[in-house]
Design a protein that fits this description.
Helices cover 69% and strands 0% of the residues. The protein is mainly α. It has 2 domains: 52 residues, Arc Repressor Mutant, subunit A, CATH 1.10.10.60; 111 residues, Tetracycline Repressor, domain 2, CATH 1.10.357.10.
């Protein structure tokens, strides 16, 4: 009798990457369309074109699904390297303005900000995934600029990062105005005057 080799495999069916991708995209699209609070598991399954059984095998509720989906939104923010502080900052802010110019972004961000106030897991996902990726890109830009001697001594990089990001978010969510390249260039010019040599 031939002895069969026993292989340890995780229980249940392996996860399909296609199904995961479809579920992530559906969750984000629905938050953009109707807001986080109105999103349901059934709605996500329908939008993704998968059965509810497939969805519930992967996620017990919408929260862990949304957390996972958010992790992928801005995971690959390109960090510009033009060789100058001004060039890098303007390019990063320009790429950010492209996100703000997408009409669907207003519903996504407003829905997430509201959800963050009530849901610690969503707040962590936004702060440590979505926001942290952009913040890390700006901090890399500032670190390179400091090494080139372009920044004032003793600059607080975290504070400078807030100065670049804050006006964009405030204008977009509170004022409801456009965040376009003209606006980001004005923000860059004002902040750079305060932090650059």
């Amino acid at each position: 009798m031939t002895r069969q080799r026993i292989v340890n495999r995780p229980r249940g069916r392996p996860r399909s990457q296609d199904a995961d991708t479809a579920l992530h995209a559906a969750a984000i699209a629905l938050i953009r369309d109707i807001g986080y609070d109105a999103v349901t598991m059934e709605g996500i399954a329908e939008r993704a074109g998968v059965g509810k059984a497939t969805l519930y095998r992967r996620f017990a509720s919408k929260e862990p699904l949304v957390v996972e989906a958010l992790g992928g939104i801005m995971r690959k923010v390109p960090v510009p390297d033009t060789g100058t502080l001004g060039g890098d900052v303007r390019r990063l802010l320009r790429s950010t303005s492209i996100m703000y110019e997408d009409p669907a972004t207003r519903h996504l961000l407003s829905g997430l900000v509201a959800a963050m106030a009530r849901n610690e897991a969503i707040a962590r996902a936004v702060r440590h995934g979505f926001v942290a990726t952009w913040r890390d890109a700006m901090r890399q830009i500032l670190a390179r600029a400091a090494a080139r001697g372009e920044l004032r001594r003793g600059l607080d990089a975290a504070f400078a990062t807030h100065l670049f990001a804050g006006p964009l978010l405030y204008r977009f969510l509170i004022d409801g105005d456009r965040v376009d390249e003209r606006f980001t260039r004005r923000v860059a010019a004002v902040v750079l005057r305060g932090i650059a040599l």
